Amino acid sequence: MMDDDTGTVNDIGIQKARLLLIDGSGYIFRAFHALPMMTRADGTPVNAVYGFTSMLMKLVDDMMPDHVAVVFDTSRQTFRSDIYPDYKANRLAPPEDLIPQFALVREATTALSLPMMEASGFEADDLIATYAALAETANMETIIVSSDKDLMQLVRGNVTMLDPMKQRRIGAAEVEEKFGVTPDKVVDVQALAGDSSDNVPGVPGIGVKTAAELINIYGDLESLLACADEIKQPKRRENLIAFAEQARISRQLVLLREDAPTPLEMGAMKTPPRNMDVLKAFLVEQDFKRLLVRIGASADAADKVSNPAVRSMGGTLSTNANQDQTAKDSAMATIHDAQSLRNIEADYTLITDREALVSFLGKARKQGFLAVDTETTGLNASAVDLVGISMAIAPGQACYIPLRHGATNDSAVGSGVAVQGGLNFSDDDTPAHYPQLDFETAMAEIKPLFEDPAVLKIGHNLKYDAHVLMRPRNGGINLAPVDDTMCLSYVLDGGRVERHSMDYLAGHWLDYTTIKFSDVCGKGAKQIPFSELAPEAALDYAAEDADITLRLWMILKPRLAGEKVASVYERLERPLIPVLAQMENYGITVDRSILARMSNDFATRMEALAQDILALAGEDFNIASPKQLGEILFDKMGLQGGKKAKTGAYSTSADVLEDLAASGVEIASKVLDWRHLAKLKSTYADALVECILPATGRVHTSFSMVGASTGRLSSSDPNVQNIPIRTSEGRQIRTAFIAAEGCKLISVDYSQIELRLVAHVAGEQSMIEAFKDGIDIHARTASEVFGIPLDQMDSETRRRAKAINFGIIYGISAFGLARQLSIPQGEARDYIASYFENFPGIRAYMERIKTEAREDGFVETLFGRRIHITGMAGGSAAHRGFAERQAINAPIQGSAADIIKRAMIRIPPALQAADIRADMLLQVHDELIFEAPAADADNAVKHITRIMEAAAAPVVDLKVPLVAEAGIADSWADAH
Fold first, then answer.
1. Where in the chain is the domain with CATH 1.10.150.20?
2. Could you tell me if 551 and 322 are in contact, meaning their C-beta atoms sit under 8 angstroms apart?
3. CA–CA separation, 648 and 205 (whole Å)
4. Which of 257, 282, 331, 339 shows the shortest CA–CA distance to 40?
5. Where in the chain is CATH 3.30.420.10?
6. Which of 22, 277, 669, 890 could be a cystine partner for 867, CB 3.0 to 4.6 Å?
7. CATH classification of 347-587, choosing from 3.30.470.10, 3.40.109.10, 2.60.40.1080, 3.30.420.10?
8. How far apart are CA 579 and CA 581, in angstroms?
9. Tens digits of per-residue pLDDT, 335-361?
10. Domain 755-894 architecture
11. pLDDT tens for residues 252-281?
12. Is the pLDDT of residue 875 over 70?
């Protein structure tokens, strides 16, 4: 039930009539983003409709208003657009799957027998303001159902708000808490602060807090502007004077009109009884069986829902009706759980004595789980020092344990900024001027719990925390077992939410805005290191991270089984967390001297190319400037193919230059070579040196587990997966990655794994036989497509077949293949047609997977990972084509990623069991890099290749063998 079910009472004890004004547009978007994708039998998306209908039904039943109306927006063009054409111009178009649901939510409103209204040229907020004023005149109580802050200016007397997601009433006190002013002055604060979401400009440099201070001093906007020259702060004074008119325009934009049209008389808004026949018919049409049951519909009515065709949460449900309903119930339960976790008072504790710490840890041990987060001196886990630890044992119940606050170091910054070095602490690691636990004393209590196999440790991007804690200086803790909310979100909603960061998920699931690092440590030059904060100042920021993580875990973890992705999380993602943390900790040795020689060599060759380019141009110009290069190529030299961008400058992209080079334009060819060397020099030869950690002489890349929708890992600082290998210069970079003294590097790479997986999923027998017999697959393809016997195959024909083989995986077009092979499009089209004629199973697979993606909204890897695909319906042909190519490739690339992850999880314990020392250092797509003592290298290869080749089993019985090829050498280049 709502927090207040009764209306207000007037002075003589008679209950006032209650008017409920519902922000329908806000409800739609909330429902859409809260519920996973659902489609009815004909493929129409209905997740927003389902959530809208369910929440609206419950709201009216609970509140029992005398009068009610659901208010909708009509379009973005309103009178405000005439005042300020850029108003809301930065708003993105609604999600493609939401657009067809706008009309359906209006149908839902009608089916619920609720009055609704809208007015052209006005926003829903203006209608709400107008009817609230009318109700006030009629001495009625008005409740505005919305979480839109713009409506808070209407709160007064008999007018309050209800946030439907937090189930929280908003009165004058709540408005003042948010804006720092009384509701009647909210408009003036908004006029000064502006609103980036609606593109309201405001006054530069003035935020809500400052605006509130100014309005409380001067009373209102006009009084403030009249006295602007009295403001002491120079920049603030200048901006208030310079942007006074902009502030006045902003006030017009945010002020809600109380004279909007009134489409309905107040009498027409009396809450009517529901027409149950109409409602039942609507729910049956939408396949909403659960809601039919909720309103007490007969079994016959509920059974009319075509369960086998219902699609929920992006995937086809089982034909079993109970399983269908369970999945939907699970989705709605998630929303309700999220609601219950939103409006919780935080109770954060600063722990600075051993007794309090022991007590908190005892509670965690007793219940068997807790959320954990670390505060450190930077982002590079291999270099940072631990500053403090936060933990949460229940929603709102969290603590922060400061450990190294009070030390200062010019190079040390807080946890929002990357640094290479740690802080300089005293021997006991405990600065004296802040009360906090001795580091060793605290770790003696914390370590047993963090390593206790009976207590689950929950974190967000816990790989980072595990890496930090495993370093001896930071406790030498083996954090286990673990759950990770970032990985949970990735497995459940990859492709369905924008990001998987804790801040984003807090907003998405909990409607909660987290404290930002800059809020506690400042910004820019004035930013201080986190370790310099007093522990009391760090408490809320640090403890909140653990608290929000725990709440997210409570929402996300229960969804795994219902959405049938538990095995992906439990067998692929979760066990990989400690493996990656250890790999990052090991790092790999990089030889500075080799990089320095390369950098000098690249510089020398660049200079020679530059001289040639300038000579061909006939004048000096900046080769690195696309604008100047374009003018040389297309204005001075008059070359064909010049196209100007919106900026007015010619495009000199790689595609443009490659076309010119292919036409024999020498200067274009040399510029491409110059750019290639420039990138190698700046991005690798020079930048890699900066990434070498002085303490280890190694680079410690960071692997992202959520960087690609297909399940592939990505890396950064440095990005080892983007080191080019197609040119001899690019391959040179890998010569700088070397084995430690007395050791060898081992490179083990899956041979043509994606082509093997294509053969398996397509059931293409000739390809399967070729892989089983160890026949060159590209030669076999050339033989099939071009009709040339294997013993007469030439290298050029094989090269063309190779391009087709790999191109097909990525859905290559005739245009793309023609460009790649430098042949006419017609010839390329013939090649592709011949390929599909000889390998019909592949075409059948491609058509099947496109259909599945279109109907289900996702595709699956062989191991059950769901990869959500958008854009399969509607939009331009180009967008649909891109989505189709993504659908074709994603299951193949994703299955390959899953297989190597399975291998990575199995290899370390297998090597340990065999008493072989070989450390896994890097993963680069289908390749794993190890470092082993020279004497153990051969034996390590035998075990590693055996595990990699059997990695798909027993989950998938592949029709083709997996082959892992290994090399042993002193450098990565020589081992690969």
1. 755-894
2. no
3. 32
4. 282
5. 347-587
6. 890
7. 3.30.420.10
8. 6
9. 546 667 877 889 999 999 999 999 999
10. Orthogonal Bundle (1.10)
11. 999 999 999 999 999 999 999 999 999 999
12. no
Cα separation, 405 vs 541, in Å, equals 14
Is the distance from CB of 929 to CB of 921 less than 8 angstroms? yes
Q: Which residues contact 96 (CB under 8 A, 6 or more apart)?
A: 870, 871, 873, 874, 875
114: left (phi over 0), alpha (psi -120 to 50) or beta: beta
**DSSP-derived 3-state class of residue 5:** coil
Q: Is the link from the previous residue into 481 a cis peptide, with omega within 30 of 0?
A: yes
Cβ atoms of 530 and 539 closer than 8 Å:
no
Which of 122, 123, 171, 138 has the alpha carbon at shortest distance from 23? 123
pLDDT in the model for residue 852: 87
Written as six digits, the tokens of 313 are 């949460």
* Neighbouring residues of 957: CB distance < 8 A, sequence distance ≥ 6: none
> Greatest CA span in the chain, whole angstroms?
104
**605 vs 449, 595, 597, 920, CA distance in Å?**
58, 15, 12, 36
Strands (E), 405-484: 456-459, 482-484
Reading phi first (left if > 0) and then psi (alpha if -120 to 50, else beta), residue 787 is in left
257-269 in b/e form (b: 16+ CB < 10 A) is beebeeeeebeeb
Length of the chain, in residues: 976
Strand partners, 931: 745, 919
| Whether 967 contacts 976, CB under 8 Å | yes
Regarding predicted confidence, which is higher, 919 or 425? 919
Going from the C-alpha of 37 to that of each of 44, 645, 869, the distances in angstroms are: 10, 38, 12
Q: If you write DSSP's letter for every residue of 309-358 in order, what string do you get?
A: G-EETTEEPPSSHHHHHHHHHHHHHHHHHHHHTTS---EEEE--SHHHHH
Mean pLDDT of 718-724: 88
Burial per residue of 67-104, b for 16 or more beta-carbon CB atoms within 10 angstroms, e otherwise: bbbbbbbeeeebebbeebeebbeeeeeeeebbebbbeb
Q: Residue 3's pLDDT band (boundaries 50, 70, 90)?
A: very low
End-to-end CA distance of the chain: 65
Out of 1.25.40.20, 3.40.50.1010, 3.40.50.2300, 3.40.50.1000, the CATH code matching 18-174+257-268 is 3.40.50.1010
Higher pLDDT pick, 5 / 879: 879
Q: How far apart are CA 210 and CA 874, in angstroms?
A: 46
Q: Is the pLDDT of residue 423 over 80?
A: no
pLDDT band, very low/low/confident/very high, at 428 (cuts 50, 70, 90): very low
| Cα–Cα distance measured from residue 313 to residue 97, given in angstroms and rounded to the nearest whole number | 13
Burial of 14 (0-12, 13-18, 19+ CB in 10 A): exposed
Record the tokens describing residue 653, joined without a space. 């992209």
pLDDT of residue 310: 34
Residues of the chain with CATH 3.40.50.1010: 18-174+257-268
Share of residues in the chain with pLDDT > 70 (%) = 90
d(C-alpha 956, C-alpha 896), whole Å: 12
Q: Which residue has the tokens 């208010």?
A: 71
Of the pLDDT bands very low, low, confident and very high (cuts 50, 70, 90), residue 433 is low
pLDDT at 339: 67
Could you tell me what percentage of the chain is helix, strand and coil, using 3-state DSSP and rounding each to the nearest 5? 50, 15, 35
Using the predicted structure, report yes or no on whether residue 425 has a pLDDT greater than 50.
Answer: no
What count of other Cβ atoms lies within 10 Å of the Cβ of residue 389? 27
Number of CB atoms found within 10 A of residue 224's CB: 23
Please compute the mean of the pLDDT values over residues 158-187 and round it to a whole number. Answer: 90
Of the candidates 871, 921, 861, 860, which has an alpha carbon nearest to the alpha carbon of residue 896?
Answer: 861
- Residue 165: the pLDDT is 66
Considering only CA atoms, which of 331, 336, 309, 901 is closest in space to residue 561?
331
